Amino acid sequence: MTAETPQPDPKLLELLVCPLTKGPLRYDRERAELVSESARLAYPIRNGIPIMLPAEARRLD
């Protein structure tokens, strides 16, 4: 993540859950993603805003 990329609000990250499993998310700072281990999906963070749409998520292998 570059210095130019805004980071999401830490308080917001504490409140967010996976929209599919309602389980916890892990913040991956390096990839700018929120990772749901249970759903095997990584939700992107764009301009500091988490995109919590399963269609926009990257599948984890």
UniProtKB/TrEMBL annotation:
Gene3D superfamilies: 2.20.25.10. GO terms for cellular component: cytosol. It comes from the Bacteria. Belongs to the UPF0434 family. This is UPF0434 protein SAMN05192530_10723. It comes from Aureimonas jatrophae.
